[in-house]
Amino acid sequence: MSMLKSALFASALALPLAGTAALADTPDDVLVIAQNIDDIVAIDPAQAYEFTSGELVTNLYDRLVQYDAEDPTVLAPGIATEWEVDAEAKTITFTLRDDAVFNSGNPVTAEDVLFSLTRVIKLNLTPAFILAQLGWTPENVDDMVTADGNVVTVKYEGDFSPAFVLNVLAARPASIVDKALVMEHEEDGDMGNAWLNANSAGSGPFELTAYTPGQMVRMAANEDYFKGAPEMSQVIIRHVAEAATQQLLLEQGDIDMARNLTPDQITSLSSEDIKVETFPQAAVHFLSFNQKTESLTDPAVWEAARYLVDYTGMTDTIIKGQMEVHQAFWPKGFPGSYDETPFTYDPEKAKQILADAGIETPIEVTLDVINSAPFTDMAQSLQASFADAGIEFEILPGTGAQVITKYRERTHQAMLLYWGPDFMDPHSNAKAFAYNADNSDENYQATTTWRNAWAVPDEINEETMAALSEADPDKRLDMYRDLQAKVQEDSPIVIMFQASYEVGMGADVSGYVNGATSDFVYYRLVEKE
Protein backbone atom coordinates (compact mmCIF):
# COMPACT_ATOMS: atom_id res chain seq x y z
CA MET A 1 0.00 0.00 0.00
CA SER A 2 1.45 3.39 -0.98
CA MET A 3 2.20 6.03 1.65
CA LEU A 4 -0.49 8.27 0.15
CA LYS A 5 -3.12 5.52 0.27
CA SER A 6 -2.05 4.61 3.82
CA ALA A 7 -2.52 8.21 4.91
CA LEU A 8 -5.92 8.48 3.23
CA PHE A 9 -7.02 5.19 4.77
CA ALA A 10 -5.94 6.29 8.24
CA SER A 11 -7.85 9.53 7.80
CA ALA A 12 -10.96 7.68 6.72
CA LEU A 13 -10.82 5.44 9.79
CA ALA A 14 -10.71 8.48 12.02
CA LEU A 15 -14.12 9.58 10.70
CA PRO A 16 -17.49 8.13 11.74
CA LEU A 17 -18.51 5.22 9.54
CA ALA A 18 -21.61 6.69 7.95
CA GLY A 19 -22.56 7.95 4.54
CA THR A 20 -20.25 7.65 1.55
CA ALA A 21 -16.71 6.64 2.44
CA ALA A 22 -13.59 8.24 1.00
CA LEU A 23 -12.30 4.93 -0.34
CA ALA A 24 -14.01 2.18 -2.30
CA ASP A 25 -11.81 -0.69 -1.12
CA THR A 26 -9.93 -1.61 2.02
CA PRO A 27 -6.18 -2.27 1.80
CA ASP A 28 -5.15 -5.79 0.83
CA ASP A 29 -3.40 -6.50 4.12
CA VAL A 30 -5.91 -4.87 6.48
CA LEU A 31 -9.14 -6.50 7.67
CA VAL A 32 -11.80 -3.89 8.48
CA ILE A 33 -14.83 -5.03 10.47
CA ALA A 34 -18.06 -3.27 11.43
CA GLN A 35 -19.39 -4.63 14.70
CA ASN A 36 -21.36 -3.57 17.74
CA ILE A 37 -18.65 -3.57 20.42
CA ASP A 38 -20.37 -1.54 23.12
CA ASP A 39 -20.58 -4.61 25.38
CA ILE A 40 -16.88 -4.37 26.28
CA VAL A 41 -16.35 -3.73 29.97
CA ALA A 42 -12.86 -5.20 30.38
CA ILE A 43 -10.16 -6.70 28.17
CA ASP A 44 -7.78 -7.83 30.92
CA PRO A 45 -7.99 -11.66 30.67
CA ALA A 46 -8.43 -11.78 34.45
CA GLN A 47 -11.58 -9.66 34.18
CA ALA A 48 -12.91 -9.93 30.62
CA TYR A 49 -16.35 -11.58 30.62
CA GLU A 50 -18.21 -10.04 27.67
CA PHE A 51 -18.69 -11.47 24.19
CA THR A 52 -16.48 -8.99 22.34
CA SER A 53 -13.89 -9.09 25.12
CA GLY A 54 -13.58 -12.83 24.63
CA GLU A 55 -12.86 -12.37 20.93
CA LEU A 56 -10.10 -9.88 21.68
CA VAL A 57 -8.47 -11.99 24.39
CA THR A 58 -8.35 -15.01 22.07
CA ASN A 59 -6.50 -13.06 19.38
CA LEU A 60 -4.12 -11.25 21.75
CA TYR A 61 -3.03 -14.03 24.11
CA ASP A 62 -1.95 -17.66 24.26
CA ARG A 63 -2.68 -20.27 26.93
CA LEU A 64 -0.80 -23.38 28.02
CA VAL A 65 -3.18 -25.39 25.85
CA GLN A 66 -5.74 -23.92 23.50
CA TYR A 67 -8.30 -24.54 20.81
CA ASP A 68 -6.70 -22.97 17.77
CA ALA A 69 -7.78 -21.55 14.43
CA GLU A 70 -6.65 -24.54 12.33
CA ASP A 71 -9.18 -26.78 14.07
CA PRO A 72 -11.20 -25.32 16.96
CA THR A 73 -12.43 -28.80 17.89
CA VAL A 74 -8.94 -29.99 18.88
CA LEU A 75 -7.17 -29.07 22.11
CA ALA A 76 -3.71 -28.21 20.86
CA PRO A 77 -0.35 -27.11 22.29
CA GLY A 78 -0.11 -23.44 23.09
CA ILE A 79 2.62 -22.06 25.32
CA ALA A 80 3.17 -25.68 26.34
CA THR A 81 4.49 -28.11 23.73
CA GLU A 82 3.59 -31.20 25.74
CA TRP A 83 2.10 -32.26 29.03
CA GLU A 84 2.03 -35.29 31.30
CA VAL A 85 -0.95 -36.26 33.41
CA ASP A 86 -0.80 -37.95 36.80
CA ALA A 87 -4.48 -38.46 37.55
CA GLU A 88 -3.75 -40.24 40.80
CA ALA A 89 -1.67 -37.39 42.16
CA LYS A 90 -4.02 -34.86 40.54
CA THR A 91 -1.25 -33.05 38.72
CA ILE A 92 -0.51 -32.07 35.14
CA THR A 93 3.06 -31.16 34.18
CA PHE A 94 3.57 -28.82 31.22
CA THR A 95 6.78 -28.37 29.25
CA LEU A 96 6.95 -24.87 27.81
CA ARG A 97 8.04 -24.05 24.27
CA ASP A 98 11.23 -22.03 23.85
CA ASP A 99 10.16 -19.99 20.82
CA ALA A 100 7.23 -18.02 22.24
CA VAL A 101 7.85 -14.28 22.57
CA PHE A 102 5.62 -11.56 23.96
CA ASN A 103 4.89 -8.58 21.77
CA SER A 104 7.20 -6.60 24.03
CA GLY A 105 10.08 -8.81 22.92
CA ASN A 106 10.30 -10.54 26.29
CA PRO A 107 10.47 -14.34 26.12
CA VAL A 108 7.53 -16.26 27.57
CA THR A 109 8.78 -18.02 30.70
CA ALA A 110 7.47 -20.27 33.42
CA GLU A 111 7.46 -17.25 35.72
CA ASP A 112 4.97 -15.56 33.41
CA VAL A 113 2.73 -18.62 33.52
CA LEU A 114 2.77 -18.73 37.32
CA PHE A 115 2.10 -15.02 37.54
CA SER A 116 -0.79 -15.16 35.07
CA LEU A 117 -2.67 -18.06 36.67
CA THR A 118 -2.17 -16.97 40.27
CA ARG A 119 -3.01 -13.37 39.35
CA VAL A 120 -6.53 -14.40 38.27
CA ILE A 121 -7.21 -16.07 41.61
CA LYS A 122 -5.74 -13.25 43.68
CA LEU A 123 -7.60 -10.51 41.81
CA ASN A 124 -10.78 -12.61 42.11
CA LEU A 125 -12.67 -10.79 39.37
CA THR A 126 -15.69 -12.18 37.48
CA PRO A 127 -14.13 -15.09 35.49
CA ALA A 128 -11.96 -16.28 38.39
CA PHE A 129 -14.58 -18.92 39.23
CA ILE A 130 -13.53 -20.91 36.16
CA LEU A 131 -10.01 -21.52 37.54
CA ALA A 132 -11.27 -21.67 41.14
CA GLN A 133 -13.12 -24.88 40.21
CA LEU A 134 -9.73 -26.59 40.49
CA GLY A 135 -9.69 -25.94 44.22
CA TRP A 136 -7.48 -22.87 43.92
CA THR A 137 -7.78 -20.07 46.46
CA PRO A 138 -5.73 -16.91 47.10
CA GLU A 139 -4.24 -18.76 50.07
CA ASN A 140 -3.15 -21.96 48.28
CA VAL A 141 -2.69 -21.03 44.61
CA ASP A 142 1.06 -20.41 44.95
CA ASP A 143 1.40 -24.03 46.06
CA MET A 144 -0.99 -25.34 43.41
CA VAL A 145 0.90 -23.83 40.45
CA THR A 146 4.69 -24.23 40.60
CA ALA A 147 7.64 -24.24 38.21
CA ASP A 148 11.05 -25.85 37.80
CA GLY A 149 12.97 -24.36 34.88
CA ASN A 150 10.70 -24.49 31.83
CA VAL A 151 8.35 -27.01 33.43
CA VAL A 152 5.12 -25.89 35.10
CA THR A 153 3.21 -28.22 37.41
CA VAL A 154 -0.49 -27.65 38.00
CA LYS A 155 -2.22 -29.33 40.92
CA TYR A 156 -5.96 -29.56 41.38
CA GLU A 157 -8.41 -30.69 44.03
CA GLY A 158 -11.59 -32.55 43.22
CA ASP A 159 -12.63 -35.74 41.49
CA PHE A 160 -12.00 -34.40 37.99
CA SER A 161 -10.90 -35.95 34.74
CA PRO A 162 -7.61 -34.46 33.53
CA ALA A 163 -9.50 -33.62 30.32
CA PHE A 164 -11.81 -31.39 32.36
CA VAL A 165 -8.80 -29.66 33.93
CA LEU A 166 -7.22 -29.12 30.52
CA ASN A 167 -10.42 -27.52 29.24
CA VAL A 168 -10.43 -25.21 32.26
CA LEU A 169 -6.83 -24.24 31.46
CA ALA A 170 -7.84 -23.56 27.86
CA ALA A 171 -10.45 -21.04 29.02
CA ARG A 172 -10.17 -17.26 28.73
CA PRO A 173 -8.84 -16.39 32.23
CA ALA A 174 -5.94 -18.84 31.79
CA SER A 175 -4.35 -16.56 29.18
CA ILE A 176 -0.65 -15.88 29.74
CA VAL A 177 0.40 -12.25 30.26
CA ASP A 178 3.84 -10.61 30.24
CA LYS A 179 4.66 -10.25 33.95
CA ALA A 180 7.44 -7.71 33.54
CA LEU A 181 5.39 -5.43 31.31
CA VAL A 182 2.21 -5.73 33.37
CA MET A 183 3.90 -5.03 36.68
CA GLU A 184 5.54 -1.92 35.22
CA HIS A 185 2.02 -0.53 35.12
CA GLU A 186 0.73 -1.71 38.49
CA GLU A 187 -1.27 0.90 40.38
CA ASP A 188 -2.31 0.59 44.01
CA GLY A 189 -1.79 -3.16 44.03
CA ASP A 190 -4.06 -3.85 41.03
CA MET A 191 -1.43 -6.09 39.37
CA GLY A 192 -1.74 -4.03 36.19
CA ASN A 193 -5.50 -4.47 35.86
CA ALA A 194 -6.32 -0.87 34.90
CA TRP A 195 -3.53 -0.76 32.32
CA LEU A 196 -4.50 -4.13 30.80
CA ASN A 197 -8.01 -2.84 30.22
CA ALA A 198 -6.62 -0.43 27.63
CA ASN A 199 -3.53 -2.34 26.43
CA SER A 200 -2.35 -5.87 25.79
CA ALA A 201 0.60 -7.85 27.09
CA GLY A 202 0.33 -11.12 25.26
CA SER A 203 2.17 -13.44 22.91
CA GLY A 204 -0.79 -14.12 20.63
CA PRO A 205 -1.02 -13.59 16.88
CA PHE A 206 -1.99 -9.93 17.34
CA GLU A 207 -1.09 -6.99 19.58
CA LEU A 208 -3.53 -4.31 20.68
CA THR A 209 -2.30 -1.01 19.23
CA ALA A 210 -5.34 1.19 19.84
CA TYR A 211 -8.57 0.92 21.80
CA THR A 212 -11.20 3.62 22.19
CA PRO A 213 -14.22 2.33 24.15
CA GLY A 214 -17.40 2.41 22.10
CA GLN A 215 -15.52 3.44 18.97
CA MET A 216 -12.66 1.30 17.71
CA VAL A 217 -10.22 -1.56 18.29
CA ARG A 218 -7.01 -1.84 16.27
CA MET A 219 -4.75 -4.90 16.38
CA ALA A 220 -1.41 -5.35 14.62
CA ALA A 221 0.08 -8.67 13.53
CA ASN A 222 2.70 -10.31 15.74
CA GLU A 223 5.41 -10.93 13.14
CA ASP A 224 7.21 -13.29 15.55
CA TYR A 225 4.22 -15.49 16.34
CA PHE A 226 5.42 -19.03 16.85
CA LYS A 227 2.84 -20.47 14.46
CA GLY A 228 3.60 -17.91 11.80
CA ALA A 229 2.66 -14.27 11.32
CA PRO A 230 -0.93 -13.54 10.28
CA GLU A 231 -1.56 -12.54 6.67
CA MET A 232 -3.36 -9.39 7.78
CA SER A 233 -0.98 -6.73 9.06
CA GLN A 234 -3.86 -5.13 10.94
CA VAL A 235 -7.37 -5.95 12.10
CA ILE A 236 -9.56 -2.91 12.69
CA ILE A 237 -12.93 -3.28 14.38
CA ARG A 238 -15.13 -0.21 14.17
CA HIS A 239 -18.11 0.21 16.47
CA VAL A 240 -21.16 0.40 14.22
CA ALA A 241 -24.29 -0.23 16.26
CA GLU A 242 -26.83 0.01 13.45
CA ALA A 243 -27.15 -3.12 11.33
CA ALA A 244 -28.43 -1.06 8.40
CA THR A 245 -25.25 1.02 8.45
CA GLN A 246 -23.15 -2.14 8.55
CA GLN A 247 -24.97 -3.41 5.45
CA LEU A 248 -24.42 -0.13 3.61
CA LEU A 249 -20.71 -0.08 4.40
CA LEU A 250 -20.32 -3.69 3.29
CA GLU A 251 -22.12 -3.07 0.02
CA GLN A 252 -19.99 0.02 -0.62
CA GLY A 253 -16.78 -1.94 -0.04
CA ASP A 254 -15.77 0.29 2.88
CA ILE A 255 -15.49 -2.70 5.22
CA ASP A 256 -14.58 -6.34 4.74
CA MET A 257 -16.95 -7.85 7.25
CA ALA A 258 -20.30 -7.01 8.89
CA ARG A 259 -20.83 -8.92 12.12
CA ASN A 260 -24.37 -7.91 13.18
CA LEU A 261 -26.62 -8.13 10.14
CA THR A 262 -30.25 -9.19 10.66
CA PRO A 263 -31.73 -12.20 8.82
CA ASP A 264 -33.69 -9.85 6.56
CA GLN A 265 -30.52 -7.96 5.66
CA ILE A 266 -28.66 -11.20 5.00
CA THR A 267 -31.42 -12.22 2.60
CA SER A 268 -31.28 -8.89 0.80
CA LEU A 269 -27.54 -9.07 0.07
CA SER A 270 -27.26 -9.70 -3.65
CA SER A 271 -23.89 -8.40 -4.79
CA GLU A 272 -21.47 -10.92 -6.28
CA ASP A 273 -18.77 -9.12 -4.29
CA ILE A 274 -20.37 -10.23 -1.01
CA LYS A 275 -20.81 -13.66 0.54
CA VAL A 276 -22.42 -14.95 3.71
CA GLU A 277 -20.93 -17.63 5.93
CA THR A 278 -22.86 -19.43 8.67
CA PHE A 279 -21.28 -20.65 11.89
CA PRO A 280 -22.89 -22.92 14.52
CA GLN A 281 -22.98 -21.38 18.00
CA ALA A 282 -22.88 -22.98 21.44
CA ALA A 283 -26.36 -21.99 22.67
CA VAL A 284 -29.00 -24.73 22.51
CA HIS A 285 -32.70 -23.83 22.52
CA PHE A 286 -35.22 -26.01 24.29
CA LEU A 287 -38.79 -26.46 25.46
CA SER A 288 -39.09 -27.75 29.01
CA PHE A 289 -41.90 -29.00 31.23
CA ASN A 290 -41.96 -28.27 34.96
CA GLN A 291 -42.49 -31.52 36.86
CA LYS A 292 -44.38 -29.64 39.56
CA THR A 293 -47.23 -29.51 37.02
CA GLU A 294 -49.03 -32.85 37.35
CA SER A 295 -50.34 -32.97 33.77
CA LEU A 296 -46.75 -32.79 32.46
CA THR A 297 -45.17 -35.59 34.50
CA ASP A 298 -46.05 -38.58 32.30
CA PRO A 299 -43.06 -39.56 30.10
CA ALA A 300 -45.52 -40.09 27.27
CA VAL A 301 -46.12 -36.32 27.22
CA TRP A 302 -42.37 -35.77 26.90
CA GLU A 303 -42.14 -38.31 24.08
CA ALA A 304 -45.13 -36.91 22.20
CA ALA A 305 -43.73 -33.39 22.51
CA ARG A 306 -40.65 -34.40 20.55
CA TYR A 307 -42.90 -35.12 17.55
CA LEU A 308 -44.91 -31.91 17.88
CA VAL A 309 -42.11 -29.45 17.14
CA ASP A 310 -42.13 -28.26 13.53
CA TYR A 311 -38.34 -28.27 13.35
CA THR A 312 -37.84 -27.69 9.63
CA GLY A 313 -40.87 -25.42 9.38
CA MET A 314 -39.22 -23.01 11.80
CA THR A 315 -35.67 -23.28 10.47
CA ASP A 316 -36.93 -22.67 6.93
CA THR A 317 -38.84 -19.52 7.92
CA ILE A 318 -38.92 -17.64 11.23
CA ILE A 319 -35.47 -18.69 12.47
CA LYS A 320 -33.79 -19.23 9.12
CA GLY A 321 -30.09 -18.49 9.45
CA GLN A 322 -30.42 -18.02 13.22
CA MET A 323 -30.76 -21.64 14.31
CA GLU A 324 -30.36 -25.16 12.99
CA VAL A 325 -31.95 -28.40 14.14
CA HIS A 326 -29.98 -29.95 17.00
CA GLN A 327 -31.53 -32.27 19.57
CA ALA A 328 -28.80 -32.91 22.16
CA PHE A 329 -27.51 -30.83 25.04
CA TRP A 330 -23.88 -30.39 23.91
CA PRO A 331 -23.44 -28.21 20.81
CA LYS A 332 -22.32 -29.60 17.49
CA GLY A 333 -18.76 -28.73 16.56
CA PHE A 334 -17.07 -29.66 19.83
CA PRO A 335 -15.62 -32.93 21.11
CA GLY A 336 -18.29 -35.13 22.64
CA SER A 337 -21.23 -33.74 20.66
CA TYR A 338 -24.06 -36.08 19.74
CA ASP A 339 -25.44 -34.94 16.42
CA GLU A 340 -28.26 -37.43 15.78
CA THR A 341 -31.64 -35.77 15.11
CA PRO A 342 -34.18 -38.63 15.29
CA PHE A 343 -37.30 -36.52 15.84
CA THR A 344 -39.41 -34.88 13.14
CA TYR A 345 -42.79 -33.21 13.13
CA ASP A 346 -45.34 -36.06 13.21
CA PRO A 347 -48.61 -35.10 14.98
CA GLU A 348 -50.28 -38.40 14.18
CA LYS A 349 -47.51 -40.30 15.92
CA ALA A 350 -47.72 -37.91 18.88
CA LYS A 351 -51.47 -38.46 19.18
CA GLN A 352 -50.94 -42.22 19.12
CA ILE A 353 -48.30 -42.01 21.87
CA LEU A 354 -50.70 -40.06 24.09
CA ALA A 355 -53.60 -42.42 23.32
CA ASP A 356 -51.54 -45.54 24.03
CA ALA A 357 -50.58 -44.07 27.41
CA GLY A 358 -54.22 -43.33 28.22
CA ILE A 359 -53.63 -39.60 28.50
CA GLU A 360 -56.75 -37.51 28.10
CA THR A 361 -56.62 -34.38 25.99
CA PRO A 362 -56.81 -31.47 25.78
CA ILE A 363 -53.98 -30.62 28.14
CA GLU A 364 -53.90 -26.90 28.93
CA VAL A 365 -50.41 -25.50 29.61
CA THR A 366 -49.00 -22.01 30.08
CA LEU A 367 -45.82 -21.35 28.08
CA ASP A 368 -43.45 -18.64 29.31
CA VAL A 369 -41.38 -16.93 26.62
CA ILE A 370 -39.14 -13.88 26.30
CA ASN A 371 -41.15 -11.13 24.63
CA SER A 372 -38.90 -10.53 21.62
CA ALA A 373 -38.17 -12.04 18.23
CA PRO A 374 -37.59 -14.80 17.39
CA PHE A 375 -38.83 -16.28 20.66
CA THR A 376 -42.42 -15.07 20.40
CA ASP A 377 -42.59 -16.35 16.81
CA MET A 378 -41.24 -19.73 17.95
CA ALA A 379 -43.83 -19.86 20.75
CA GLN A 380 -46.63 -19.24 18.26
CA SER A 381 -45.31 -22.06 16.06
CA LEU A 382 -45.26 -24.40 19.04
CA GLN A 383 -48.76 -23.29 20.02
CA ALA A 384 -50.06 -24.22 16.57
CA SER A 385 -48.22 -27.53 16.18
CA PHE A 386 -48.89 -28.83 19.71
CA ALA A 387 -52.60 -28.07 19.31
CA ASP A 388 -52.65 -30.73 16.59
CA ALA A 389 -52.32 -33.36 19.33
CA GLY A 390 -54.48 -31.64 21.94
CA ILE A 391 -51.76 -29.88 23.95
CA GLU A 392 -52.92 -26.28 24.18
CA PHE A 393 -50.37 -23.61 25.04
CA GLU A 394 -51.34 -20.28 26.54
CA ILE A 395 -48.38 -18.04 25.71
CA LEU A 396 -47.17 -15.81 28.56
CA PRO A 397 -44.66 -13.28 27.17
CA GLY A 398 -42.39 -11.40 29.57
CA THR A 399 -39.09 -9.63 29.79
CA GLY A 400 -35.99 -11.76 30.00
CA ALA A 401 -35.69 -10.97 33.71
CA GLN A 402 -39.34 -11.90 34.37
CA VAL A 403 -39.10 -15.18 32.49
CA ILE A 404 -35.83 -16.25 34.08
CA THR A 405 -37.06 -15.29 37.56
CA LYS A 406 -40.07 -17.62 37.18
CA TYR A 407 -37.73 -20.31 35.89
CA ARG A 408 -35.43 -19.99 38.89
CA GLU A 409 -38.41 -20.06 41.24
CA ARG A 410 -39.85 -23.17 39.51
CA THR A 411 -43.24 -21.45 39.15
CA HIS A 412 -43.64 -21.91 35.39
CA GLN A 413 -45.42 -24.76 33.64
CA ALA A 414 -43.70 -24.88 30.25
CA MET A 415 -40.72 -22.74 29.27
CA LEU A 416 -39.10 -21.78 25.96
CA LEU A 417 -35.49 -20.82 26.64
CA TYR A 418 -31.86 -21.40 25.68
CA TRP A 419 -28.63 -22.42 27.41
CA GLY A 420 -24.95 -21.87 26.73
CA PRO A 421 -21.89 -23.40 28.42
CA ASP A 422 -19.64 -21.42 30.77
CA PHE A 423 -16.56 -23.01 29.19
CA MET A 424 -16.00 -25.60 26.52
CA ASP A 425 -16.07 -28.86 28.43
CA PRO A 426 -19.11 -31.14 28.02
CA HIS A 427 -19.57 -31.29 31.78
CA SER A 428 -20.59 -27.64 31.67
CA ASN A 429 -23.85 -28.71 29.98
CA ALA A 430 -24.10 -32.23 31.36
CA LYS A 431 -24.47 -30.87 34.88
CA ALA A 432 -27.31 -28.66 33.58
CA PHE A 433 -29.25 -31.25 31.56
CA ALA A 434 -28.32 -34.63 33.07
CA TYR A 435 -27.77 -34.15 36.80
CA ASN A 436 -30.04 -33.42 39.76
CA ALA A 437 -29.33 -35.58 42.79
CA ASP A 438 -31.32 -33.39 45.21
CA ASN A 439 -34.60 -32.07 43.83
CA SER A 440 -35.73 -30.35 47.01
CA ASP A 441 -36.92 -26.76 46.85
CA GLU A 442 -34.25 -25.75 49.36
CA ASN A 443 -31.42 -27.05 47.17
CA TYR A 444 -31.36 -24.28 44.55
CA GLN A 445 -29.30 -25.22 41.49
CA ALA A 446 -28.61 -23.17 38.36
CA THR A 447 -29.49 -26.11 36.11
CA THR A 448 -32.34 -26.90 33.75
CA THR A 449 -33.03 -30.15 35.59
CA TRP A 450 -33.56 -28.56 39.02
CA ARG A 451 -35.44 -25.58 37.62
CA ASN A 452 -37.86 -27.97 35.92
CA ALA A 453 -38.07 -30.06 39.11
CA TRP A 454 -36.90 -33.16 37.27
CA ALA A 455 -35.53 -35.71 39.69
CA VAL A 456 -32.96 -37.22 37.36
CA PRO A 457 -32.75 -41.03 37.58
CA ASP A 458 -29.86 -42.30 39.71
CA GLU A 459 -28.31 -44.07 36.72
CA ILE A 460 -27.93 -40.80 34.80
CA ASN A 461 -26.71 -38.87 37.84
CA GLU A 462 -24.05 -41.48 38.43
CA GLU A 463 -22.97 -41.54 34.80
CA THR A 464 -22.68 -37.74 34.75
CA MET A 465 -20.32 -37.73 37.72
CA ALA A 466 -18.41 -40.73 36.36
CA ALA A 467 -17.83 -38.86 33.09
CA LEU A 468 -16.50 -35.87 35.01
CA SER A 469 -13.81 -38.02 36.61
CA GLU A 470 -13.08 -40.45 33.72
CA ALA A 471 -9.35 -40.32 32.95
CA ASP A 472 -9.49 -41.84 29.45
CA PRO A 473 -10.32 -38.92 27.11
CA ASP A 474 -11.97 -41.01 24.39
CA LYS A 475 -14.03 -43.05 26.84
CA ARG A 476 -15.07 -39.85 28.56
CA LEU A 477 -16.42 -38.33 25.35
CA ASP A 478 -18.29 -41.56 24.61
CA MET A 479 -19.91 -41.31 28.04
CA TYR A 480 -21.12 -37.79 27.27
CA ARG A 481 -22.53 -38.94 23.93
CA ASP A 482 -24.36 -41.74 25.75
CA LEU A 483 -25.74 -39.27 28.28
CA GLN A 484 -26.99 -37.03 25.49
CA ALA A 485 -28.71 -39.94 23.76
CA LYS A 486 -30.48 -40.89 27.01
CA VAL A 487 -31.61 -37.35 27.80
CA GLN A 488 -32.64 -36.86 24.18
CA GLU A 489 -34.90 -39.90 24.34
CA ASP A 490 -36.43 -39.52 27.78
CA SER A 491 -36.57 -36.27 29.72
CA PRO A 492 -38.98 -33.35 30.20
CA ILE A 493 -36.48 -31.11 28.36
CA VAL A 494 -36.99 -31.11 24.59
CA ILE A 495 -33.86 -29.75 22.92
CA MET A 496 -34.76 -28.44 19.49
CA PHE A 497 -32.14 -26.13 17.99
CA GLN A 498 -28.60 -24.87 18.11
CA ALA A 499 -28.00 -21.21 17.44
CA SER A 500 -26.30 -20.18 14.21
CA TYR A 501 -24.50 -16.99 13.36
CA GLU A 502 -24.33 -15.44 9.91
CA VAL A 503 -21.56 -13.07 8.87
CA GLY A 504 -21.58 -10.98 5.72
CA MET A 505 -18.15 -10.44 4.20
CA GLY A 506 -16.37 -9.53 1.01
CA ALA A 507 -16.14 -12.36 -1.49
CA ASP A 508 -12.35 -11.99 -1.41
CA VAL A 509 -12.12 -12.78 2.33
CA SER A 510 -11.21 -16.33 3.35
CA GLY A 511 -9.87 -18.10 6.41
CA TYR A 512 -12.12 -16.41 8.98
CA VAL A 513 -12.95 -18.79 11.82
CA ASN A 514 -15.96 -18.21 14.09
CA GLY A 515 -16.37 -21.06 16.52
CA ALA A 516 -19.28 -21.81 18.79
CA THR A 517 -18.50 -19.09 21.33
CA SER A 518 -16.87 -15.67 21.32
CA ASP A 519 -13.69 -17.32 22.63
CA PHE A 520 -13.38 -19.11 19.29
CA VAL A 521 -13.21 -16.16 16.89
CA TYR A 522 -9.91 -16.19 15.02
CA TYR A 523 -8.39 -13.72 12.57
CA ARG A 524 -4.95 -15.32 12.22
CA LEU A 525 -5.73 -17.29 9.06
CA VAL A 526 -7.69 -14.57 7.25
CA GLU A 527 -6.56 -13.77 3.71
CA LYS A 528 -7.83 -11.52 0.96
CA GLU A 529 -7.58 -12.82 -2.57
Automatic annotation (TrEMBL):
Coiled coil: none annotated. This is Peptide/nickel transport system substrate-binding protein. InterPro entries: Peptide/Ni-bd (IPR030678), SBP_5 (IPR039424), SBP_5_dom (IPR000914). GO terms for molecular function: peptide transmembrane transporter activity. GO terms for biological process: peptide transport. The lineage of its organism: Bacteria, Pseudomonadati, Pseudomonadota, Alphaproteobacteria, Rhodobacterales. It comes from the Bacteria. It comes from Sagittula marina. Residues 76-440 form the Solute-binding protein family domain. The keyword Signal applies. It is found in: Periplasm. Residues 1-24 form the signal peptide. Keywords: Signal. Its main location: periplasm. GO terms for cellular component: ATP-binding cassette (ABC) transporter complex; outer membrane-bounded periplasmic space. CDD domains: PBP2_NikA_DppA_OppA_like_7. Belongs to the bacterial solute-binding protein 5 family.
